[in-house]
Amino acid sequence: MSASDDTIRLTTAQAIISWLANQYIEIDGTKRRLCGGGFGIFGHGNVTCLGEALHGAREELPLYRGQNETGMGFAAAGYAKQWLRQRFMFCTASAGPGTANLLTAAGLAHANRLPMLMLCGDTFITRLPDPVLQQMENYYDPTLGVNDAFKSCSRYWDRICHPAQVIQSLPAAIATMLDPADCGPAFIGLPQDVQGWTYDYPVAFFAETVHRIRRQSPDASEIADAAAALKAAKRPMIIAGGGVQYSRAVSELTAFAERHQIPVVETIAGRANMLATHKLNTGPIGVTGSESANAVAAKADVILAVGTRLQDFTTGSWTAFAKDAQIISINAARHDAGKHMSLPVVGDARLSLATLDEALDYTAPDAWVRFARDERRKWDAYVAENIRPGNRPNSYAQAIGVVNDLCDPRDRVVAAAGGLPAEVTANWRTLEIGTVDVEFGFSCMGYEIAGAWGARIAQMEQEPEQDTITFCGDGSYMMLNSDLYSSVLSRKKLIVVLLDNFGFAVINKLQNNTGNESFNNLLEDCPTIPEPFRVDYVAHATSMGAEAEKVDNPAELGEAFKRAKNSDKSYVIVMDVDAYEGWTTEGHAWWEVGTPHVTKSDRVREAHKDWEAERARQRRGV
């Protein structure tokens, strides 16, 4: 209903959805809708008004029905990663527990700097029916509710109290999600009454808009400082983080490294920045890294960190580098560029590398490059033996090696929490650029299947002939498996390699490594479980419509994987792995964890002394 020629009367919900449907982005010269659609579970807080609006836009913004709100958020994150943060999905949940279930996913998106829009139900702005179903009453502040919890894990937060507010709020949310420095989740609370209120919106507000992601040029003086530091380097090293891919700067980073002959190491988020066979690829760095990368890091005198937030698994809790090493940090985010007394270069990775390249007349010493390559050769030999079937009981590494040998180079590989991120990071040999998603920024159990489902939705918009393969432990599968059903329902095929070590084995390993007895991690070590038994994962997966089979060893896994590749349905392959002997034992930098300063256990006391002895190597900084 139009109030005049230049306005249109819509509900708040209708205005939000109409506006989203008219936002586009230019990607490599092609115009695409910015929002790929959404994931939704309806309840009384979002079905009557927002649901009505979404039904009217179901062709432009397809809505995927989730099984769990946390899984929906993980799927949105997986989608954004696959699209290199150039496109996003929204999630809608009802007021109360439905929305609260998105908190973990918002934390994941915030830690990983991923765009995700949350459109969530809220209590009535009038408060006339209070307290309503599922309302969390606050005795001293009636404006405070469950949705306020998202302020700690959102880059943009708003509660729409009047229909006109969306005219400012929606563009601000999109600007945040597309900003390379501030990118992260945006939360918009939608009170149930306000969703249905009407307003005469300007027609111009709904005009088609084409967005482009900003590329910030670096400051000339910061480039000069970085170039001067590199020119003086005797043992330089490049750390390639996830921001290299988000900037689409892989070619520029590779060219820069080749021209100046500087060894490159990869972070967890930066895996697949370089092919495994590249001569300057020195391996993954840090706690879950490689002997080769960590050996180079320990000797490097100048470190060029590109697109990384330098989290503790990269830095070995800041013991991986020499204390006097100079760090140069190229990052679009000022917050990340200045960490640990780095020389900051605040700017887009692609532009900054190109500008620094022009300012730099330098080649690293041959002896240093040979050292890095020799270390990488030794690490490659270790990995070849580590993944070899039959070298020990069934292991994660063996399964990873089998899949690595048989997959298509462009297949997408996903891993998340537990022991698999370390094992994939250390043992996976990159076949093509940008094909690995190891979610270890927030390390969320349950991301493996839900995140892979989101990645698969995006992948089918790009390369539908490729597969999405996810490595999942039994602990993560039990925590959140319902989007296996979602993948079957939506015909978004996944290959799930489910490796069962009968518990939370990697935390049991940490428990043992710090001198503690096995307790409450492996099912057999839980005193409240009289008779532990393994879940029949094949029966469970097939009950959700997937194809599934259990194999006894890596050779059978290989044959099953071939069948999974040929199937047109989601496929689960289950293999038991050893909880104690199956780990990659080399390549680990020190990691700071809290250990008891006082204990009755001699083993715990000795482990505490050993742990504390390593602290002397920590760099001091901010």
Automatic annotation (TrEMBL):
Keyword Transmembrane helix: no
EC number: 3.7.1.22
Keywords: Hydrolase, Thiamine pyrophosphate
Domain named Thiamine pyrophosphate enzyme N-terminal TPP-binding: residues: 39-134
Stretches assigned to the Thiamine pyrophosphate enzyme central domain: 223-356
Residue ranges, annotated region (Disordered): 602-622
Class of the enzyme per the UniProt entry, highest EC level: hydrolase
Residues covered by the Thiamine pyrophosphate enzyme TPP-binding domain: 435-574
Record's compositionally biased regions (Basic and acidic residues): 602-616
GO molecular function, one term: 3D-(3,5/4)-trihydroxycyclohexane-1,2-dione hydrolase activity
PANTHER family: 3D-(3,5_4)-TRIHYDROXYCYCLOHEXANE-1,2-DIONE HYDROLASE, THIAMINE PYROPHOSPHATE ENZYMES
NCBIfam families per the UniProt record, alphabetical: myo_inos_iolD (TIGR04377)
Entry similarity comment: Belongs to the TPP enzyme family.
Protein known as: 3D-(3,5/4)-trihydroxycyclohexane-1,2-dione acylhydrolase (Decyclizing)
Organism encoding this protein: Nitratireductor aquimarinus
